[in-house]
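Extended Data, record PilZ domain-containing protein
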Amino acid sequence: MLVLAMITSFIDRLRGKPALKADNALNYTYLHLHQAQRNRDFLEVKIEGDEVLYQSIILESDPNERTLLIDELFPTGFVGLPGQKVHLAIRQKGGRKIKFESTILEQHRYDDAPIYVLAMPQDIEAGQRRSAYRLPIANSSSIDSHFVGPEGNAYHGLLRNVSSTGIAMDVLLDEMDNSGGPDNFQYNDILDELVFDFAGVNIQCEASVRSVEVDPNDQKHILIGAEFVDLPPVEQRVLERSIMRIQRDRIKLSGAFEADMALA
């Protein structure tokens, strides 16, 4: 089969290449795309310059070659060409939606229908319907957090946003562990003994890693997004009320500032 032959060619092209270094962004992207492939989730495909919304599915994903193989576009009739930019989205259960952009690298024929090799995206937007508002934390606020990583080392972070269900933290790995790196943290890793104070609320719980973003200028500087695992319901409600109060105060302050500017 042509698909099998293409997959074999991917492996052949790898021979003689040096081993790839750990890449958290690639790991995160491949995890979501492989899950969509396994579940046979439909792809929504938009070709730049064409108003039609097409559908397809992922036939194969190769993290080493950083490529995706997708099926014929439906409705049929349009043939994509190498070099064309494409915008893609994957709708999943529970309101989740994955968005990313790519480029057609190759076009082949299988069973007299076109199939496409796309560049695996550098990153993806894996969003979901949020039941909790995320409150941004200004850099000047310097809200400290502490936790124990999956390898047992202690870490210090600065909060960048907080909700009643999770947080995002800036973490400098070399502050506590000179041998650490971005690959210390993977999706679903547990952060033990997470502690931080917010608006008079002391939070102590575990959290599960949901995203890891690496500063391209400093591999020791990462942003970790994590979801609370065992936060007691009472503390969660208190945290949510504090976030809502601060958000209301910010809106009022913003409105007062705009009114002052209008009178100036």
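Summary. The first strand starts at residue 43 and ends at 47.
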